[in-house]
Specification:
The protein is 31% helix and 35% strand. The protein is an alpha/beta fold. The strands form two sheets. A seven-stranded mixed beta sheet has the order 5-6-4-3-7-8-9, with helices on both faces. A two-stranded antiparallel sheet has the order 1-2. Helix 3 crosses helix 4. It is globular and about 40 Å long.
Length: 177
């Protein structure tokens, strides 16, 4: 499916957050009611089979996870930065360009065997998304698909997720980032 109509609604901000980076800003897509509805409809149509939970990665992933969960008749699982959730959590560490970070979810958020669809706004290097898949699988989830609004294919994140056994779909891609 050609999603140039959605791609045109995503603003590019050069040199943010540092020189040489072309930041793909989805806030312009979120502001457009028709564009947002079309995005959600197309993401829902791309889901393969039933899912029990839609896991959204903090923070923009929460928006899309909640919006997709309703028509998919699924719950929403929040994946947050470590230390942001009350109660018992499980966490997963992942590498950043300089250092490490951790993401977490509630320990009781997902029953073993639950079919989970991972959602975020953008896939770049894939570090956070891959950590989310490991975290969900540690909890016993079955994670076979991850969907994104934007893919930056030159950064390799989608390919890394595929190597982890996850089917990756995105609506638009921006080369050269």
């Amino acid at each position: 499916m050609n999603n140039d109509d959605l791609k045109a609604r995503i603003r590019t901000i050069p040199d943010f957050p540092k020189p040489g980076i072309m930041f793909r800003d989805i806030t312009t897509l979120l502001l457009d009611a028709h564009g947002l509805k079309t995005t959600i409809d197309r993401m829902v149509a791309a889901v393969d089979g039933p899912v029990d939970l839609v896991a959204g990665i903090e923070a923009r992933g929460f928006l899309f996870a909640a919006a997709l969960a309703v028509p998919l008749n699924a719950g929403v699982l929040l994946i947050r930065k470590d230390g942001k959730l009350p109660g018992a959590t499980i966490a997963e560490e992942y590498a950043l360009e300089y250092g490490h970070d951790r993401i977490a979810m509630h320990a009781d958020a997902c029953a073993p065997g639950a079919r989970v669809l991972l959602i975020d706004d953008l896939i770049a290097t894939g570090g956070t998304a891959r950590a989310a898949v490991r975290l969900l699988r540690k909890a016993g989830a079955v994670v076979t698909q991850a969907h994104f609004v934007v893919d930056l294919p030159d950064l390799g994140g989608a390919d890394a997720l595929r190597a982890d056994g996850v089917e990756v779909r995105s609506l638009v891609a921006f080369a050269g980032d």
